Sequence to fold (216 residues):
Amino acid sequence: MEQRLHGLLSSERVVGDLRHYFGMGLPPGAVVFTGSRFEHLAGGGDRPDVADRVTAEDLVAVQTLSVTVPASVALDLLEGPLGVRLSGLLHAIPRDIDMVDAEADVLVEGSPADQAWHLLCAQRGVNRVIAGKLLARKRPRLLPVYDRVVRCALGRPRPSFWLALHAELRADDCALHRQLLALRKIAGVPETVSALRVCDVAVWMGHRAEGHACPR
Fold:
């Protein structure tokens, strides 16, 4: 994973990819990726007044990344006991910390974040990708998107993608995290886009550019 990740992030096209994805400098009316609204729709999923509950805006936001929460699960998240259970877990997951600054125990098996992921995955019609994207919407600085394209690009690290990425971000005096922040600045991407999301977009765009037909 380390070599592949650093290769994609060091590509000559990465800054242009970021600018294209987030619509930076594009002329009016140009087609942009719907995922560019994932973080910012309705002010974001981690704003203080909604950080610990799933909203209708969150459910729309995950659709910008080409997944849909089944209607029955969506209603349960918005109005039913599933939403209450998930809210309790979200309350225990730090909101205002980047993955690089978090201790590993925030991400390990059995942590509130892991429990929230398993709770979502246990719902009919909710797979690992959908669960991960919903949690990434609620905790964009802490929990990364890990979908089919990222998995195709970086593989299935053990014991988990979360812990593998956490270790990479903290290695060499947090060199990777600093590289992601530098790429964000050079590309002119808003600071409200997390380092994790910069990583996700760079990997996704770069892997697609290499001709890999991995569905999002």
